[in-house]
Design a protein that fits this description.
The complex is a heterodimer of chains A (about 475) and B (about 325). Chain A is mainly α. Chain A starts with a helix and ends with a helix. The longest helix of chain A has about 45 residues. Chain B is of the alpha+beta class. Chain B has three domains: about 90 residues, Arc Repressor Mutant, subunit A (Orthogonal Bundle); about 70 residues, SH3 type barrels (Roll), CATH 2.30.30; about 70 residues, SH3 type barrels, CATH 2.30.30.90. Chain B contains ten helices and 13 strands. Classes of the chains: A mainly alpha (about 475), B alpha+beta (about 325). The interface between A and B is large, with 46 and 47 residues. Strand 1 of chain A pairs antiparallel with strand 12 of chain B, so a sheet runs across the interface.
């Protein structure tokens, strides 16, 4: 052994001699050493008690006959608390931010001598969009996420994933996707962050790319409004609320079905080659630390998402106001855009107003309906509703809303297609930005926008064609 | 004026098409040259004579095309012709080893980092070996932890261009009743390789030679008996097993019912890369005691008690863990 070359050569030869088992042997040796030390120094306390509460609870929540009923009951309770509980703070926030503060701000602006366009741009555009997002988004998230985190903290959610995994396995996905889906019913952007719990790269991408099919809290009001106005109205008054509830549930079920179909398709095609492994820890049950949970879920989930939504809502509000107020020729930009989008919109059973609303209200689904109403009033030249071009509004009664929409040419078909489009279309820009942050890839972000969007167009197109044949 | 513009457009399109064709042809020529070098290298190391005929066969091209390729390689001082036989110069050998290194690294990557099936490894690596740059190959090697064998059991040439001899021996060298470990499963030709994969044979597996006839051998592994015709068996290389091993039916973690306990004896060699690492990270190593605890409401996955934690595994992964 004289020269450096020879030593390196020997090392190279030894590597081949060691061969493949080298890594395995290292890990095995580490474990052997660790357990040797543990045996010497750690003493275990006695045996298990005769009645093991955890085992009994586990058997109950993962039982063949008890597992699923318990899951559906708990999920139902969480949704009920969220929807009922959010009503009060939502309308409180709306009355403060939109009904009181908005006129006050405009007055203040005028008293400082702001020109009308600055006043409109700042307060009717930017401020109003943010106010809307905050008042619709904040309360349900502030209720849903802590409840969700408490269930997670207690240890129940991993058991849900455990029970549902067989279903997801068949779609090429991970059982934990059940949790990220459920999270998506609160907010898709927060759900995208929560896909970090899926430790297998392929399954995580599937969960990210399909999360959009979980109806987020910004889209629930759209669904409920459309179902009430167009579908519930078909039924006799006594049944109408049951029928519209059924219609919304149907949309949710379609969303779940789409999640499985698209997951399956992705795992069989573009994600076929990605590495995959399933393991799921079932942690011991712990009494949830309520206050800590509330604090962390408000900070980690709610506020981060809300902040992103606000950052996106500002420019969007500005754009909404500008397109409605800048005139080219004898009409506003919005009117020109609507006219050129109309043919495409009608082809898929929607209209130009809806498409434009989805384009300019991309930061948050919460402001889609107010934008649609404002644009409809704008193009139909309706007076007496809303407060002018570029000022989003909502109406107190559903009957009044229905009147505005019917004046805009809406039919039952438009209502159904809007429900489907709202379920299937691309995620909002807040979610897209989160997807980009999480995957670090422009490719996956683009796919996550274009895939649902094309599905939405195809589905709406087919429904419209079928409708034409049937009626 | 318009005529001139049209002519210009036609000319430009023609030029673009021509340059595309030239580029394609250049790539194709490079692929053929590199494949030829690989063939001559394999002849060299297996001690079989390499002729224009064998080269034409390996590249599936007419013999005069093979002659043309050999001539070009000769001009580049990569190949020397001795009589009717082709041999590599030292530069040619270095070049061939580089191509083989990329090929085997890529197969390792596919086996460890993706879910691409074993039957597609070779085909994908055949394309990658011509396109991956030296830097890309080195960073891949680094990411994979500088592997020394490809998933078929072939050694990966070192960056300095060294390569040990093929591991193991032919099955012929062992008697009936002996237990041997598979160290290499040849992936060419593809249909023979598919038979070996279908028979459930992969590097690292222990097999017992049960019967040897003129037509082939009967092997026993993991409790099943497989007959391999002579041609197929010739594509396996094996070595004597170091420790006494069982080749009978193996009990796996998946066979445990809730409440039962067993000790891990090993992880199937068919479990590679990410999956193997994750199992080992969870503490699934020989000697670990594992108890099945709970079945999901749908029957799969099952939760196991592993080193103080309750971990749910799917049946397909539990089947990869041998227990006793």
């Amino acid at each position: 052994m004289s020269s450096r070359e020879e030593i390196l050569k020997t090392a190279e030869n030894l590597r081949w001699e060691l061969g493949e088992r080298f890594h395995d042997l290292t890990v095995e040796a580490l474990y052997a050493e660790a357990s040797r030390i543990a045996r010497k120094t750690v003493s275990a306390a006695g045996t298990r008690p005769g009645f093991d509460f955890e085992r009994a609870l586990d058997r109950l929540v993962t039982g063949k006959w008890t597992g699923f009923p318990i899951m559906f009951a708990l999920l139902g309770i969480v949704f009920w608390i969220t929807i009922e509980g959010a009503n009060v703070p939502s309308s409180f926030l709306a009355s403060v931010l939109i009904d009181s503060l908005h006129p006050l701000l405009k007055e203040t602006g005028s008293s400082f001598g702001f020109p009308w366009w600055l006043n409109g741009f700042l307060f009717d555009g930017m401020y109003l969009a943010v106010a809307w997002v905050v008042s619709v988004m904040l309360p349900p998230m502030a209720i849903f996420f802590p409840l969700f985190t408490i269930a997670e903290d207690f240890g129940y959610l991993p058991r849900v994933a455990f029970n549902l995994d067989a279903l997801f396995r068949r779609a090429g996905a991970h059982g934990k996707q059940a949790l990220t889906m459920a999270m998506g019913y609160g907010c898709n952007a927060a759900a995208i962050i929560s896909t970090r719990i899926i430790d297998s790269p392929r399954e995580r991408l599937i969960a990210i790319l399909t999360n959009n099919f979980s109806l987020c809290n910004g889209r629930w009001p759209t669904q409920i409004l459309m179902a009430t106005i167009f579908i519930g109205a078909l039924a006799p008054p006594l049944l109408s609320s049951a029928v519209s509830a059924l219609a919304v549930v149907t949309v949710v079920v379609i969303g779940v079905a789409m999640t499985f179909i698209v997951s399956w398709g992705l795992s069989k095609t573009i994600l076929k080659g990605q590495a995959s492994f399933f393991s799921l820890e079932l942690p011991p049950y712990r009494p949830p630390r309520i206050w800590q949970t509330v604090y962390t879920s408000v900070i980690d989930r709610t506020l981060i998402v809300l902040w992103r939504a606000v950052v996106w809502a500002l420019p969007s509000g500005a754009v909404i106001w500008l397109v409605s107020n800048i005139h080219v020729g004898n009409a506003s930009i919005a009117e020109h855009a609507i006219a050129s989008l109309d043919p495409i919109g009608l082809l898929v059973g929607l209209n130009g107003v809806i498409l434009l609303a989805y384009i300019i209200a991309i930061p948050a689904n919460e402001i889609v309906i107010p934008t649609i109403l404002m644009l409809t009033a704008l193009v139909t030249g309706m007076t007496g509703v809303g407060s002018g071009a570029g000022v989003m509004f909502e109406l107190e009664s559903e009957a009044a809303t229905a009147e505005v929409l019917r004046a805009g040419g809406w039919t039952l078909l438009t209502g159904i297609n809007l429900m489907l489009f709202s379920l299937l279309h691309n995620p909002c820009s807040t979610t897209l930005y989160t997807i980009y942050k999480e995957t670090g890839s422009a490719k996956w972000t683009t796919l996550s926008a274009l895939l649902p969007l094309s599905i939405a167009f195809v589905v709406c197109f087919l429904v419209t064609q079928l409708w034409g044949l049937l009626f | 004026m318009t005529t001139f513009l049209i002519l210009l457009a036609i000319l430009l399109t023609g030029l673009a098409a021509a340059s595309l064709i030239v580029r394609k042809r250049r790539i194709r020529a490079r692929v053929a040259a590199e494949d030829a070098l690989k063939h001559i290298f394999h002849c060299d190391s297996s001690g079989t004579p390499c002729t224009l005929n064998s080269l034409a066969g390996a590249l599936s091209c007419p013999i005069d095309v093979a002659a043309e390729i050999a001539k070009t390689l000769g001009e580049q001082n990569l190949v020397a012709v001795r009589g009717s036989e082709l041999a590599l110069t030292s530069e040619g050998r270095e070049y061939a080893l580089k191509v083989i290194r990329v090929h085997r690294l890529w197969e390792r990557h596919l086996a460890d980092e993706t879910m691409v099936g074993e039957l597609e490894w070779h085909k994908e690596a055949e394309e990658k070996e011509h396109t991956l740059s030296h830097e890309e190959a080195e960073s891949l090697s680094k990411r994979l932890g500088h592997p020394v064998y490809d998933p078929h059991g072939d050694p990966i040439p070192s960056p300095s261009g060294r390569l040990p001899g093929e591991p193991g021996k032919n099955l012929e060298a062992f008697r009936e009743g002996e237990t041997v470990r598979v160290v290499h499963v040849e992936d060419e030709p593809g249909n023979v390789y598919k038979d070996l994969v279908d028979a459930g044979l992969y590097p690292g597996l222990d097999v017992t030679i049960r019967e040897r006839t003129d037509r082939g051998v009967v092997l026993e592994h993991e409790g099943r008996a497989t007959f391999l015709p002579g041609v197929t068996a010739g594509n396996l290389r094996v070595e004597r097993s170091t420790a006494p091993v069982k080749t009978g039916p193996r009990k796996t973690l998946a066979s445990l019912k809730p409440g039962e306990m067993a000790v891990v004896t090993g992880i199937s060699p068919a479990c590679r890369g990410l999956q193997r690492r994750r199992l080992m990270d969870l503490g699934v190593v020989p000697g670990t005691r594992i108890a099945a605890e709970l079945r999901s409401a749908t029957g799969d996955p099952t939760a196991y008690r592993i080193r103080g934690a309750t971990i749910a595994l799917r049946r397909e992964h539990a089947e990869l863990v041998y227990v006793d």
